[in-house]
């Protein structure tokens, strides 16, 4: 047997009608509590208290956000300050390191310059009598010399003139040298020898190291001499007979003779 739906006023309400009724009931309830009337009436809203629960929550939210923003800004500034301070420290360190490097470089350059100057001073040669000239040449013949010729050169030197080492070396002999009178013999740094004769006196001693231009004696006229002057010889060895041309020797070391 088939079932039929009742008609008329006995029809079951639809879901839409049910929801509508519930909504109207809710509105009525809100109206009763005064919420809807407050929202619906501008005048009533104006008379309502300024601070509701919703407004206070919003204000608290903004205040918290502001504090967070302030803290973030403060942290950011602190980080920037720390970075700037670190950069300043690093810049100062680099500047100090660069200043130290320049100072060390300058000191090294001074040391090199001083060493170069000292090498130049020790390696230079000078005249045995400052401002003098050759009065008798090398291998000049005559009866004055036992070998028949002059084994060195004579430099003009009034008595008491300062006699200088022509270069750097070590004194190997001083004192009386027979025909040479009072003499000084120096072994030079290059292995050659120089001899200074007819001296009034020596001012250095055997074993003493001398430098170019250092005074080693006072000129005179001792030994086989006809008057005050300096007899100067250059030798390739320590023994007599190893003499070289003294003028060529000095010129070979840059001395203008």
Automatic annotation (TrEMBL):
Bias kind Basic residues: ranges: 7-18
InterPro entries: Cell_wall_metabolism_enzyme, Dup_hybrid_motif, M23ase_b-sheet_dom
SUPFAM superfamilies: Duplicated hybrid motif (SSF51261)
Region (Disordered): 1-22
Keyword hit for Coiled coil: yes
UniProt protein name: Peptidase
Coiled-coil segments: 82-120
Membrane-traversing stretches: none
M23ase beta-sheet core domain ranges (all copies): 149-237
Keywords: Coiled coil
């Amino acid at each position: 047997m088939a079932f039929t739906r009742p008609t008329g006023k006995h029809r079951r309400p639809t879901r839409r009608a049910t929801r509508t009724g519930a909504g109207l009931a809710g509105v009525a309830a809100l109206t009763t509590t005064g919420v809807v009337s407050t929202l619906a009436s501008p005048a009533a809203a104006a008379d309502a208290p300024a601070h509701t629960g919703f407004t206070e929550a919003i204000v608290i939210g903004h205040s918290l956000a502001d504090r967070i923003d302030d803290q973030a800004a403060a942290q950011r500034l602190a980080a920037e300050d720390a970075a700037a301070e670190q950069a300043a420290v690093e810049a100062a360190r680099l500047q100090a390191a660069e200043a130290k490097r320049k100072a060390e470089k300058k000191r090294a350059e001074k040391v090199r310059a001083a060493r170069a100057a000292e090498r130049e001073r020790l390696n230079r040669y000078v005249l045995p009598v400052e401002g003098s000239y050759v009065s008798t040449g090398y291998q000049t013949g005559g009866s004055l010399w036992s070998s028949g010729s002059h084994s060195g050169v004579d430099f003009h030197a009034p008595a008491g003139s300062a006699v200088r080492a022509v270069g750097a070396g070590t004194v190997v002999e001083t004192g009386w040298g027979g025909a040479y009178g009072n003499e000084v013999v120096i072994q030079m740094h290059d292995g050659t020898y120089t001899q200074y004769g007819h001296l009034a006196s020596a001012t250095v001693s055997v074993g003493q190291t001398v430098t170019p231009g250092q005074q080693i004696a006072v000129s005179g006229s001792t030994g086989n001499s006809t008057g005050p002057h300096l007899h100067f010889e250059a030798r390739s060895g320590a023994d007599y007979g190893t003499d070289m041309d003294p003028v060529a020797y000095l010129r070979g070391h840059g001395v203008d003779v």
